[in-house]
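Annex B. Sample input.
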Amino acid sequence: MKHFGKVIGSALLSSVFLLPGSANAEIKERTIRFAFQNAQEHPQGQGAKKFAELVEQKSGGKIKVRLFPSGQLGGDLQTVSSIQGGTLDMTVLNAGLLVGQVKEFGLFDLPFLFDSAKQADAVVDGPFGQKLSETLVPKNLVGLGYWDLGFRNLTNSRRPVTKLEEIQGLKVRVVQSPLYIDLFNTLGANAVPLPFPELYTALEQKTVDGQENPATVIQTSKFAEVQKYLTFTRHVYNPQIVIFSKRVWDRYDAEEKKLVEEAAAEAKAYQRQVSRDAETKAVEQLKAQGMQLTELSPEEVARLRDKVKPVTEKFAKEANEAASKELFAEIEKARAAR
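Annex B, continued. Sample output.
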């Protein structure tokens, strides 16, 4: 993609960095409208609340942040469109959902990319994540950092899954995405794409045997009532990206932009910790609710990773081969640094 390998353009330079002589600029009375899909109590909502508190504190109360949780203003893609048009200011969503804006964002959905959340942080906070964020500027979006949703794991009602062969034949609900369908079919399951609101009933009625989601989603959705076995496959890690309307951003002066960026950076650290603490708590609760938990051996994870290499290669090539190579190089660097 022509924008991907470029250095920061002049539009972003004027947006991001504090300009000389602007430190005493007057902060105006403003309201930031921040919409997102999860509930206020979810780690996503808690991160948004922290951001709101920080912005109000740093602006002396002049800049307010109004939160719209639980998809009040529409789904993710509708929200992104509103932000591009400047009728909404801000959101946070799965980075992979921006594939329609910049196809390289689809790389974040590739299976078994990261071994740990720390490794994912290093890549999204590093040159690759920053460069990808910069490609959003021509799309009237400004990236303000990446949050955490966690690793996706497999649950089912039929049997413990301790090795690759035990995935064979399971009917697994997946998100409505070609990558996820290919991924689970390649692992030997029968992938069944279904909208999330239909999932609990499908599990209860055994229309499907299992599903895959982060532990926090499994717990808050009460899947332990209809699923016996949870396997920590950690097959996909979903970084969340915080985005701001460039149309609105361009109306802010340098001091206001710097204030928002600082609040976003502090909220990011807070949200990641909240999300990871919530995951630990969710796992404990799922175990207490009677789920049988299985941790795969490193050798078995390697077998799963090898099995889905054709899926990784196919979708990496579709996204952008040069960007894929850059991403894999950054991951190797992060692995070597641990």
